């Protein structure tokens, strides 16, 4: 059997683990301290967006480099306090089974996150070795919706972009996946994720049959076929 040439590229925050909530709570704490109004609908637009751009969007103006650094650091301290509480295996429901199922069927798995804390979170969860490729905010110059993260992940997997499926909870992530020429499954808010090939409300609703269908548009083929 020839080696699989199909990849599934997972976002981290909000797809694999509930850290999207931590990002929101950390931004909310900073916003409250700065007297800026910030709520969940406003946060929806920040999903998948790098730290600096998120801060600028939250503030609505550029406060200057010194303040930008101070506020980004403050938010990250709040975020890391919450990340400390993550326990090994504490993923969103169904994620462990999905990763194992896809791996057993020969798909190549990658993790692509705008977060500079992505590797730390994977270590806390104990799932770093599950991924053949990991691309995070430390090794890219442009965050989602730019396709750079996903294209780098496909290169590392040695899989063509058109043979990759992106799993994302962010509007910016779906846009990045489409810009990379990949298939997309959106997890969460149907309005925000409207451009995805398919939308589910929770990661647990994804299985290998769905991956096969959306990756190939042909349910008879799969990584083990041929
Ligand atoms: C992910 C999250 C965003 C977060 C970004 C940067 O994409 O969805 O909410 O702002 O990563 O995370 P970082 O940990 O580097 O601040
Ligand atoms: Mg996300």
Structure characterization notes:
The protein is of the alpha/beta class and 226 residues long. The protein has 2 domains: 7-18 and 90-215, HAD superfamily/HAD-like (Rossmann fold, 3-Layer(aba) Sandwich), CATH 3.40.50.1000; 20-83, Putative phosphatase, domain 2 (DNA polymerase, domain 1, Orthogonal Bundle), CATH 1.10.150.240. It is built from 9 helices and 6 strands. The protein has helices spanning 19-34, 40-44, 51-59, 65-83, 95-104, 118-125, 148-157, 171-179, 208-216; strands at 7-10, 108-112, 133-135, 164-168, 183-187, 198-200. It has a 6-stranded parallel β-sheet, with helices on both faces. Strand 2 (108-112), helix 6 and strand 3 (133-135) form a beta-alpha-beta unit. Helix 1 (19-34) crosses helix 4 and helix 3 (51-59) packs across helix 4 (65-83). The protein is globular, with a radius of gyration of 17 Å. It starts with 6 loop residues before the first strand and ends in a 10-residue tail after the last helix. 6-O-phosphono-alpha-D-glucopyranose binds next to helix 1 and helix 3. 6-O-phosphono-alpha-D-glucopyranose (G6P) binds next to helix 1 and helix 3.
Q: What is the CATH fold-level name of the largest domain?
A: Rossmann fold
- Count the beta strands: 6
Per DSSP, what share of the residues sits in E-state strands of 2 or more residues?
5-15%
End-to-end C-alpha gap:
8 Å
Helix content: 40-55%
Please state the structural category.
Answer: alpha/beta
> How many domains?
2
Order of helices and strands: EHHHHHEHEHEHEEH
Strand order of the largest sheet: 3-2-1-4-5-6
């Amino acid at each position: 059997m020839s080696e699989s040439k199909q990849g599934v590229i997972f976002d981290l925050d909000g797809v694999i683990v509930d850290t999207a909530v931590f990002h929101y709570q950390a931004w909310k704490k900073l916003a409250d301290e700065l007297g800026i109004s910030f709520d969940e609908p406003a946060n929806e637009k920040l999903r998948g967006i790098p730290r600096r751009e998120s801060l600028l969007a939250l503030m609505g103006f550029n406060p200057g480099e010194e303040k930008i650094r101070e506020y980004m650091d403050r938010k990250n301290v709040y975020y890391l306090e919450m990340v400390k509480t993550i326990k090994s295996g504490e993923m969103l429901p169904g994620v462990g089974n999905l990763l194992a199922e896809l791996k057993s069927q020969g798909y190549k798995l990658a993790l692509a996150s705008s977060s500079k804390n992505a590797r730390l979170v994977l270590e806390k969860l104990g799932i770093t070795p599950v991924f053949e490729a990991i691309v995070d905010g430390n090794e890219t110059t442009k965050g989602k919706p730019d396709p750079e993260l996903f294209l780098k992940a496909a290169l590392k997997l040695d899989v063509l972009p058109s043979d990759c499926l992106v799993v994302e909870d962010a509007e910016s992530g779906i846009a990045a996946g489409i810009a990379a020429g990949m298939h997309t499954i959106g997890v969460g808010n149907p309005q925000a994720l409207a451009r995805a090939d398919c939308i589910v409300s929770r990661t647990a609703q994804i299985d290998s049959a769905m991956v096969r269908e959306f990756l190939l548009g042909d349910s008879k083929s799969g990584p083990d076929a041929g």
